[in-house]
Design brief:
Helices cover about 35% and strands about 15% of the residues.
Length: about 140
Amino acid sequence: MKLKEKILTKSLWVYHLSAGSCNNCDIEILDCFTPRFDIERFGIQLVGSIRHADVLLITGAMNKKSAKILKALYEQAPRPLFVAAVGICPCSQNLFKGNYPMLSALDEIVPVDVYIPGCPPRPEAIIAGIAKLINKVTEKNKK
């Protein structure tokens, strides 16, 4: 097992991208970092630059403008990069589906590793999704 892959199982650095969300999911993500839920106990940290991130956390429905930004960020990120879609909007576009500024689903723009549905998803669901992502990283490293 390579050193970087071993480190990924203990400490994931997350870059949060709001792609036109209503901010409900963003508030729940920030709630995960409060002492009540304390997602940092799993080694999860928010970072300010995609160049330092291991996980790209996306909220909001993907429209034409935000898709260009997402592609640029995805190309700038170091590998391996894992993508998590948080909320019903990036998972299925919900009520925005079929509107003129909307593109196709998020997984057609970038590969998505974990879907965390909900409008907004509770912090417990976000933590469970991140735990699934950690398990996915661990299983991928065992192969």
